Amino acid sequence: MNSSIHGWKKVFMFSFLQESKQKSYHILVALMFIIALVSVPIMSYVNSDEKKEKSEETKITKIWVYDETGLGIDYSKLTADEKYKSVNVVSDSDISYEKMIKKLEKSKNSTEVTAKVAFDEDGFFVMDIAKSPKSNLSIMNISDFADDFREFFKKEKISALNVTEEQVDYLTQKIDYNILDISEKGEIIEGEGLNMNEYNYVYGLLIIATIMISFSGQKLATSIINEKSTRVIEYLTINVKPLALLVGKLLASILLVFIQFLAIGIGALLSVALNRVIFGDEAQSLSELLSGLKDILAGLSPASVLIVLIMLLCGIIFYDLIAGLAGSTVSKLEEMNDGMTLFTGLLIVGAYIGIALVMAEITGNVSPLLKYICTFLPISAPFVVPGYLLMGKISIVVAILSLAILAIATVFMFIFTAKAFVITIMYQGNTLKFKDIIRLLNNKQLESEGK
Fold first, then answer.
1. pTM (2 decimals)?
2. What is the rounded distance in angstroms from the CA atom of residue 160 to the CA atom of residue 155?
3. Which of 11, 9, 1, 2 minimizes the C-alpha distance to 237?
4. Any idea which of 30-39, 187-196, 261-270, 381-390 has the lowest mean pLDDT?
5. CA 298 to chain centre
6. pLDDT at 191
7. How far apart are CA 47 and CA 362, in angstroms?
8. Per-residue b/e over 275-309, b at no fewer than 16 CB within 10 Å?
9. What confidence category does residue 284 fall into, taking pLDDT thresholds of 50, 70 and 90?
10. Rounded to whole angstroms, how far apart are CA atoms 211 and 319?
11. How far is it, in rounded angstroms, from Cα 270 to Cα 264?
């Protein structure tokens, strides 16, 4: 084995330098870095712009309030807000709601609105905001007012119930939920299913894993196909064995993808600092931006993080071996799509298994057996395990067992690819199918036995 991979370092350096010198790679890394760098300031700008628009004085001149809740709310307090200081609020009109609606329908260039508040039979407070069809008020004006009026009503509704500030804080706490299953013995099984926050994080990690694996595999396969089509591969195989060629290129592609994501990470961290420089004290801090992750990150152990990193690395190597083998079956760059069918097919199936599981988990109706199959299946494990382990939805023991299965599958894939790569790398002709690779391997084995 040592003689077979001897020279992989030279291939690694050659492939890394060749790929990293390409203008397209520089543009891609720079683009990723710039997007990450400006992401937080853009979000802050959008948020501040929305706040600025909402803080400007409203174009509404009169509000007709019809309250059917019986809470006795004083709607004149709405004018305490600078935005509505010039607005005439009428909440005790002799004109009925129906007549006021007809009046608005006939009015032109009106800047008046009606706001009806009722408690419906389903147990919900309902607000109906209406304006004239020929009003000078835009949809944005009405939408902003509806948001402000809803917040005003929520605050005054609590005040009307004569509760303390402590009780208000208690009543307005964020509500989260867990989906529970009941076993056949009548016992409650906690931790099954995903709530919305967990769903977002698991889905996000799944997408990141998919992008990393796809980028790395495509880069490796493209490099091999390019060198086969230009006959460079023939020169390289004079000095090194085919297996050393595969190992060197595989490690180079992983490093290139790592640099891309490192650029994104550095850009994101600098983005927070840039946001602070641009917006000063109004800028969000890193802790505020990651507030949703705070509780989750607090419960992480170093072992979990280490397992996730190894799982991602192992998943990249597993799929890169498939991509490398697929690339070696292609002789011309224009035939790359045909040759990459196996890689892209398995990647899509593995990723979609993870996506389907995550979407099903939001309802909680997923059997433990199905979850374990998705967790232990080598093609889906790199997409499922990282998010599920970090969210505490699977134990470290299950994650280690899944990692062990993936590692064994990677070793078998390496052995198979090593045997096939020796034949396919020098092949010139029509794109080889998987059955063709098996046939070539069998023929080689028969030749060896004959000798």
1. 0.66
2. 9
3. 11
4. 187-196
5. 21
6. 46
7. 29
8. bbeebeeebbeeeebeeeeeeeeeeeeeebeebbe
9. low
10. 12
11. 10
